[in-house]
Design brief:
The complex is a heterotetramer of chains A (174), B (119), C (403) and D (102).
Chain A (H helix, E strand, L loop, with lengths): L1 H24 L3 H21 L3 H25 L1 H4 L10 H20 L17 H10 L5 H22 L8
Chain B lengths: L1 H14 L2 H13 L6 H4 L19 H24 L7 H22 L7
Helix pairs in contact in B: 4-5
Chain D lengths: L3 H21 L3 H26 L5 H31 L13
Helix pairs in contact in D: 1-2, 2-3
């Protein structure tokens, strides 16, 4: 049972990283977005493996169902530059590659030298209901009620802002 | 019990694409295959295809997807709220109503600005 | 004896354990078998649906429908399948081959996956995950993506426009649908569909008729069936996003649509009509499956009834109906339900039931009054005399005057 | 079971790939996609730490949900900006949007 979950993890992680790489190097932007969907799905499966079922499902609903569709719509609206011509990288891509690799090496070094490296997961308490707990935490005054309401304000600001920016008002309103 | 349920769902997700895949592979073996350039043209009611398929879309599509995204996120916050509602005191309902009211203000803004009108 | 499915499952479990397999492996094999049996059953049902659809539409249109092959034309769908299988498969020029081929698979698979969380009977195996409701939404999200992929990869204007329209429609109706599903979640205090069915001693359609109606409307819109069939408005964009698909690939979209309709029926039954609940269902679990499918087919029939009776709605009306009517309405209903749930105490009591029902009726009445006022004003506005851009003289008279 | 470090290394990899996308891609939408990858890597870390270090508390999941909301808001406004820029300047290549340089 233990090795099975390890094998599943390795397969999913490799596919996810591979498709993340494809996201970055794909020439066609629509392909890039579709690879992004696969990456996000892989991350959702990892959430499932971490026994955060709610977050796994939410990841699919929000990222694949809404954000990637938004991205694809935006690509379609700005079609000319999404075509296959021209270089996809800017002239500094060598530097970028170096910085990213250094970043990765540094992160791995930090993780490896950290004493909690081989921590194993404790089994979850059977009575622990993440969704119920989440609901309680989001509205209780000594929990996260402020972030909860602020998220609403943030979304409102994003909605109004995006409409103001993207929407050309027609003269004959409403 | 929960783990076994997730196992069921996981196997289902892996197997579900296999059934249509098999159904699509059978025609490869038995269906005829005689392509010619006219047959492979994209279909445009019998006319010759004009221009690229990538026509210009209006920004309305983006606006609707945007409002959808905002309400989708709202749902992520409200579903846990709905599940644990009976365990919480009365103020939780009020907080939920405030949360929704703020978002409805956004919807009203879009409405007043004509962003909801498909024209 | 009353529960044959679990009897067989127990027997198999014993047999496998007898062969000396480890308990983990036995669980895995049993789950795998469960999945295969469920999926095969659903797919078989899908083939049967082709016959149902054709027969019922024929009856609505005063025809006979398939009646040649087998009794009542029951073997007709098999002939259809064979026809689809031996048709030539065409991939148009300029199509993105990989994406083009993945799209039909997604179309059917995402619908099939929904059946993993629908409780078929009190005991039949299946998954009862604690986020069932959201799982349905998630599967729908991936299905939407399949539509975009089909439209984009076909390299066809109509396909792309059809896909975009369809996605805009799904996106618009997903919002009220997701919010409507919040009502059963509040009533049942759980997101697992099994739990929601379990708690329905009184069907939720009594407690939440408005939410049920909104769910039905949005479900039809989500399916893209008439009167919401913008994506394949024949007179405008030929066939919509699957215009370039032939043979079995088209068959996948078709089968996906039919199965989706039945699935929506099963979901509606589970959320609002008590799922597998019915007389003696708890004593004889196999009856539960029967009740569930009875209810699911009833809703499926309602969906067909709507489809073959109503004309197509214009796209601007359709969008405004969702954003300006359904979404505010259902948000109000959810908030009222939450409020009343807190005020009325424990569910199951007479006061609770009556309170919910009366509240819903009041909401309906207020909505109707508002609509009536709005349309009265609108009629007045349209009926008013408006400035007409007509010349005060006819051209002939003008020439006469100038000359 | 899987040790915590596997998840952390996976997240580091995802983060670095996203970073490369942000730094190297020309198209503004591709840059935004790169940012999405980075945010996802952060989310993987948050959930992994929740599961392995504080499984009895809910804070990790709350933070993940908030990150989700912020990511959505960022994408919404970002893409709106690109659409607006595209309408005015007919390009969204990041190295050509340089009016602010002077």
């Amino acid at each position: 049972m233990m090795t099975v979950s390890l094998i599943v993890f390795l397969i999913v992680a490799l596919i996810t990283l591979g498709s993340a790489l494809m996201v970055v190097i794909a020439r066609n932007l629509v392909h890039s977005a579709l690879w992004l969907v696969l990456t996000l799905f892989g991350v959702a499966i990892l959430f499932g493996l971490l026994q955060a079922g709610f977050l796994a499902v939410v990841q699919v609903v929000i990222y694949i169902g809404a954000i990637s569709i938004l991205i694809i719509f935006a690509i379609m609206l700005t079609r000319r530059i999404a075509s296959d011509t021209g270089p996809r990288f800017n002239e500094n891509w060598g530097w970028a590659l170096g910085i990213s690799l250094m970043m990765f090496a540094a992160l791995v070094w930090v993780i490896v030298s950290w004493p909690g490296f081989h921590v194993q997961a404790q089994p979850l308490d059977a009575r622990f209901e993440p969704v119920v707990e989440l609901g309680k935490a989001l509205v209780s005054p000594n929990g996260y009620v402020l972030p909860f309401e602020l998220a609403s304000v943030l979304l409102l600001a994003a909605l109004i802002g995006a409409i103001v920016i993207a929407w050309e008002r027609k003269p004959e309103g409403r | 019990m929960q783990t076994q349920d997730w196992l069921f769902v996981g196997i289902f997700i892996v197997l579900a694409p296999l059934f249509p895949l098999i159904a699509l592979l059978i025609p490869r073996l038995i269906a005829p295959r005689k392509p010619n350039p006219i047959k492979l043209e994209t279909y445009e009611c019998g006319m010759e295809t004009v221009g690229p398929a990538w026509v210009q879309f209006k920004v309305q599509y983006y606006i609707f997807a945007l409002i959808f995204l905002v309400f989708d996120i709202e749902m992520v916050f409200l579903y846990p709220w709905a599940v644990s509602l009976n365990l919480l005191p009365f103020y939780a309902v009020v907080e939920g109503i405030i949360f929704v009211a703020i978002l409805v203000a956004g919807l009203l803004y879009a409405w007043r600005n004509g962003a909801l009108k498909w024209a | 004896m009353t529960d044959p499915i679990n009897l067989i499952a127990e027997w198999l479990r014993g047999l496998l354990a007898g062969w000396g397999l480890s308990s983990g492996l036995v669980i895995f094999i049993m789950t795998l078998l469960g999945v295969v049996v469920t999926a095969a059953f659903v797919l078989l049902m899908d083939v049967f649906l082709v016959w149902v659809e054709r027969k019922v539409v024929a009856r609505f249109q005063d025809r006979l429908g398939p009646n040649r092959l087998g009794p009542f034309g029951l073997i007709q769908p098999l002939a259809d399948v064979i026809k689809l299988l031996i048709k030539e498969d065409i991939t148009p020029i300029g199509a993105d081959r990989v994406v083009y081929n993945i799209a039909p698979i997604l179309a059917l698979a995402t619908v099939l996956v929904l059946w993993s969380v629908i409780p078929l009977s009190p005991t039949v195996l299946g998954a009862d995950i604690n986020v069932g409701v959201l799982f349905i939404v998630a599967a729908g999200a991936i299905g939407t993506l399949g539509i975009i992929m089909a439209g984009w990869a076909s390299n066809n204007k109509y396909a792309l426009i059809g896909a975009f329209r369809m996605v805009a429609e799904i996106v618009a109706y997903e919002v009220p649908m997701v919010i409507a599903l919040m009502v059963p979640v509040i009533l049942a205090r759980s997101m697992s569909i099994g739990e929601i069915v379990q708690r329905q001693t009184i069907w939720y359609i009594v407690l939440a008729p408005v939410a049920a109606l909104v769910f039905l409307i949005t479900a039809i819109a989500e399916l893209g069936r008439a009167p919401f069939d913008l994506s394949e408005a024949e007179s405008e964009i030929v066939a919509g996003f699957h215009i370039e698909y032939t043979g079995m690939k088209f068959g996948m979209f078709y089968a996906g649509e039919l199965l989706h309709a039945l699935t929506m029926g099963a979901l509606f039954a589970s959320f609002f009509l008590g799922g597998w609940r019915g007389p003696f269902a708890e004593q004889v679990p196999i009856l539960g499956v029967f009740y569930l499918f009875l209810k699911a087919f009833f809703i499926y029939w309602v969906i067909m009834w709507v489809k073959y009776s109503l004309p197509r709605i214009r796209i601007d009306h359709l969008m405004e109906f969702s954003w300006k009517f359904l979404t505010p309405l259902i948000l109000a209903v959810v908030m009222i339900t939450a409020l009343l749930d807190k005020l009325l105490g424990e569910p199951g009591t007479l006061i609770y039931t009556l309170g919910m029902l009366v509240a819903n009726l009041i909401v309906v009445w207020i909505t109707l009054t508002l609509l009536r006022t709005y349309f009265r004003l609108e009629r007045k506005r349209v009926g008013e005399e408006r400035p007409v851009a007509a010349p005060d003289l006819t051209p002939a008279a003008r020439i006469e005057r100038t000359s | 079971m899987i040790p915590l470090s596997y998840y952390l290394i996976f997240a580091a990899g995802l983060f670095s790939i996203g970073l490369f996308g942000v730094l190297a891609r020309k198209n503004a939408i591709a840059i935004l996609i790169g940012i999405e990858l980075m945010l996802n890597a952060v989310n993987v870390n948050l959930v992994a730490f929740w599961r392995y270090r504080t499984p009895g508390m809910i804070a990790g999941q709350v933070f993940t949900v908030i990150v989700l909301a912020v990511a959505a808001a960022e994408v919404a406004v970002g893409l709106a900006l690109f659409i607006s820029i595209y309408r005015r300047r007919d390009t969204i290549a990041a190295d050509q949007i340089d009016l602010m340089k002077w």
